[in-house]
Design goal:
The complex is a heterodimer of chains A (about 250) and B (about 180). Chain A has about 250 residues and is an alpha+beta fold. Chain A contains 7 helices and 6 strands. Chain A folds into 2 domains: about 70 residues; about 140 residues, Alpha-Beta Plaits (2-Layer Sandwich), CATH 3.30.70. The longest helix of chain A is centred in the N-terminal third of the chain and has 55 residues. Chain B has 2 domains: about 60 residues; about 80 residues, 2-Layer Sandwich (Gyrase A, domain 2), CATH 3.30.1360.100. Chain B is built from 3 helices and 4 strands, in the order ααββαββ. In chain B, a hairpin with a 5-residue loop joins strand 3 and strand 4. Chain B is rod-shaped and about 160 Å long. The termini of chain B are far apart. The chains are: A alpha+beta (about 250), B alpha+beta (about 180). Chains A and B meet through helix 1, helix 2, helix 3, helix 6 and strand 4 of A and helix 1, helix 2 and strand 1 of B. Strand 4 of chain A pairs antiparallel with strand 1 of chain B.
């Protein structure tokens, strides 16, 4: 039998020998084992890490953006702006400022402020019930029932002015009666019952996650800030005689 | 004539040996390439993990910087929150009283406005007018309707009472609701 040049026959012969398969089999076993034990876990690890990198990069971008906004803020200016806003929309029931503002606004509009009574709002024996009613960061109202008298013009001017005072107030309802003829205004001031709502907002309790974006102040909000800065503020004027030093919040209802 | 059978056998064995060597070489090459790929993958994993670690460190650094500015953030968020509330309030309520003033100023001489009831909570307005003629009342109501529609303060208008008084004057109650 001539094997010379007959490579196919040589290969066929070689394949019948155990030595031919030994190395390929060992390599195949090693490759399969390593694939299962090492390669697949590595690939899974890489995939998970890449996903985490994407997620963390997004988080980092948010944080950088937020820090950039924060570093541009001037704390002194913000504090001053917050003081202005707090005068207009206080963080708790604005009883004393409200009395000052009511008295001074009425006097400014030529309206007689006969009486006023505060609605205590939610009163509960359980503090938890009161707490449940509180909604931080939302507009809350305190009702003030007041009796005023004056001409229609003066009363309307008084009520209109309340939308531009600190603290913010607005008539919930009002009933005008009697002679309302602008051509023949009545000489007698007409008595009017007005239910006023004074506004406040409990401060936000949660700031959210560290990476929550910090919006920049819009042009509209900056304009509003200028506008409310011009609101009439009577809080430094006295409406009631000071008889003793104020030692706490008497109106914590 | 002598036939050398051993020579052919030796040749065959040599060639078979070559085949074994070739197979071993190919197998080893595959193994080495595979191991190289595994090492490469491992290197990639280490690199990605290092990257992740670096990003995490950057995040911690940013969070620390933000935490230092927490007081400013609290004030700023409070400021924005209150500005949003005030803006919403003014947008909703700023117009009604100025509109009422406008109505009062546009009351014609032959009309008497005898009552105004404003209920901002339920968004209702009730006007009571008296006039010497019904034509004047209707003309006034048309004027009110035009301005009320322009201001978009109220959508529904309903006449809730029509009276003729002993002195011949007319009374009309009109209810405006959103």
């Amino acid at each position: 039998m001539d094997y010379k040049g007959n490579k196919t026959a040589i290969w066929a012969q070689a394949q019948r020998d155990r030595r031919f398969w030994l190395m390929p089999l060992a390599v195949a076993v090693a490759v399969i084992s390593l694939t299962g034990l090492v390669v697949i876990p590595i690939l899974q690890g890489i995939r998970e890490d890449l996903a985490a990198v994407e997620k963390e990069k997004a988080e980092l971008t948010k944080l950088v953006a937020k820090r950039t906004v924060l570093t541009t803020l001037n704390e002194a200016v913000i504090t001053e702006q917050l003081k202005t806003v707090n005068r207009v929309l206080p963080s708790r029931k604005p009883v004393l400022p409200l009395i000052n503002t009511l008295a001074n606004s009425a006097s400014g509009a030529g309206v007689l402020l006969n009486s006023y009574a505060f609605d205590p709002g939610v009163v509960a024996s359980e503090a938890a019930e009161v707490k449940a009613e509180e909604k931080p960061g939302e507009l809350a109202t305190m009702s003030v029932k007041s009796s005023i008298s004056g001409s229609y013009d003066a009363v309307l001017s008084f009520l209109s002015a309340l939308g531009r005072v600190a603290p913010l107030m607005y008539p919930e309802n009002a009933a005008f009666g009697g002679a309302l003829d602008p051509a023949e205004p009545s000489s007698e001031p007409m008595p009017i019952q007005v239910m006023l709502a004074a506004y406040y907002a409990l401060p936000l309790k949660q700031l959210g996650a560290m990476s929550d974006p910090l919006p920049e102040m819009s042009q509209n909000q900056q304009t509003l800030l200028t506008k409310i800065n011009e609101f009439n503020d009577y809080q430094n004027r006295d409406a009631l005689p000071v008889t003793q030093e104020f030692r706490g919040n008497f109106f914590s209802f | 004539m002598a036939i050398n059978l051993v020579s052919g056998r030796k040749q065959e064995l040599r060639e078979r040996q070559l085949v074994y060597l070739r197979v071993q070489f190919i197998s080893m090459t595959i193994l080495v390439v595979f191991l190289g790929a595994v090492l490469g993958l491992y290197g990639l994993k280490v690199y990605v993990a290092h990257n992740l670690e670096q990003i995490n460190q950057d995040i911690v650094a940013e969070e620390t910087a933000i935490a230092k500015l927490r007081a400013v953030e609290v004030k700023y968020r409070l400021l924005l929150n209150k500005l949003t509330l005030i803006d919403g309030f003014l947008a909703e309520n700023d117009t009604i009283l100025s509109w009422l003033q406008e109505v009062y100023n546009s009351v014609p001489a032959e009309i008497k406005l005898t009552g105004v009831t404003l209920d901002n909570l339920d968004r209702q307005l009730n006007l009571k007018v008296e006039a010497t003629s019904m034509t004047a009342v209707i003309a006034f109501l048309d004027l009110v309707e035009t301005t009320i529609k322009q201001s978009q303060l109220y959508q529904n208008i309903a006449v809730d009472s029509v009276t003729r008084n002993d002195d011949g004057s007319y009374g009309l109650g009109v209810n405006y609701t959103q």
